[in-house]
Amino acid sequence: SKGTYPHYMIKEIDEQPAVIRKIVQNYQNDNGELEIDAAILEEMTASDRIYIVACGTSYNAGWVGKQIIENLTNIPTEVHISSEFGYNMPLLTEKPFFIFLSQSGETADSRQVLVKINALGHPSLTLTNAPGSTLSREAKYTLLLHAGPEIAVASTKAYTAQIAVLAILGELAGRRKGFALDLDIAHELGIAATAIESIIDEKEVFEQLSVTHLSTSRNAFYIGRSIDYYVVMEAALKLKEVSYVQTEGFAAGELKHGTIALIEEGTPVISIITDPTTAGHTRGNAQEVISRGAHSMIISLDGLDQPEDAYVLPKVHHLLTPLVSVVPTQLIAYYTSLHRGNDVDKPRNLAKSVTVE
Ligand code: M6R
């Protein structure tokens, strides 16, 4: 039930720190060490390329997963939209390993890919929130998200849960490959959970920002680079699906190659800046839109912040910044939808689980 919450979406946003802690607990053995089925790690690390296949928010989580897995395991990883992959399959390597991301485990677009790769005899792992779901039953292996039921059509806690489980998988696979990783992912996930709590404690900041800058605008942009680009794709999907504001999530450097033509007086442009290597470049892009009249709002990571920033995120491990940077964007989507008078939990034209291709 919603309890005292007005909507499932805000309840599920609030649950994220607890979900991350529960995931860590669920993947710890009696000695307090992270552990997953050794057969998964064996097959995954024997692979020469990982293919992540998913739709919507799960697809966006997949891009963060690619960053984490490549970083920790050195295995090249591709991310694909299910409905494209099944009918226009890329050339596969000799030893592919498939990871399906699906909160519901029932997404037909993803299932048709699983059926095809099962017929080809390739190993697969489903990360899902739904034990016993179709994608879980039909894949060789399953890892559960342990996020609890996600009722709001807009996915929030499943995104962060997928990233947390992928991070655990990445660390264990990296160790299985023999890498001496200078990383304690369980500890880092705990830090991220606490950081999310502090952002949620300040949710009025994002309500105010939504009321002032998004509740009447026709369109909006999120921009970011590198790992922040992956997050802005999810930020844009969330805002458009619940608020109906036409939103694009763009690689910041790509804006000037065409899309900047859409910037008008007052167009909201939200930049996410957590990646030190590209922070200066993204700030430059924010300046470019400001000089064309945009209303720029920068969400930056502690240590990379500037006095003019709209919000500063607590510092977390560099592979886990999406866990914190996505939260303001979920809150912005929620409050923009709320103040536009939309049905927050059941946005028009959408279903929670999409069981047709
Ligand atoms: O259950 P799945 O993770 O397979 O669902 C995939 C998408 O349909 C889902 O993420 C959708 O994009 C949500 N409405 C996003 O909030």
Automatic annotation (TrEMBL):
Assigned keywords, A-Z: Aminotransferase, Cytoplasm, Glutamine amidotransferase, Repeat, Transferase
Keyword Repeat: yes
Chain ranges of the SIS domain: 40-179, 210-347
Alphabetical GO biological process terms: carbohydrate metabolic process; fructose 6-phosphate metabolic process; protein N-linked glycosylation; UDP-N-acetylglucosamine metabolic process
Compartments where located: Cytoplasm
Top-rank taxon, per record: Bacteria
Keyword field contains Flavoprotein: no
Gene Ontology annotations for the cellular component aspect, listed alphabetically: cytosol
UniProt-annotated catalytic positions: 352 (for fru-6p isomerization activity)
Gene Ontology terms for molecular function: carbohydrate derivative binding; glutamine-fructose-6-phosphate transaminase (isomerizing) activity
Job of this protein: Catalyzes the first step in hexosamine metabolism, converting fructose-6P into glucosamine-6P using glutamine as a nitrogen source.
Subunit record text: Homodimer.
Protein name: Glutamine--fructose-6-phosphate aminotransferase [isomerizing]
Highest classification ranks of the organism: Bacteria, Bacillati, Bacillota, Bacilli, Lactobacillales
Residue range from the parent sequence: 246 to 602 of 602
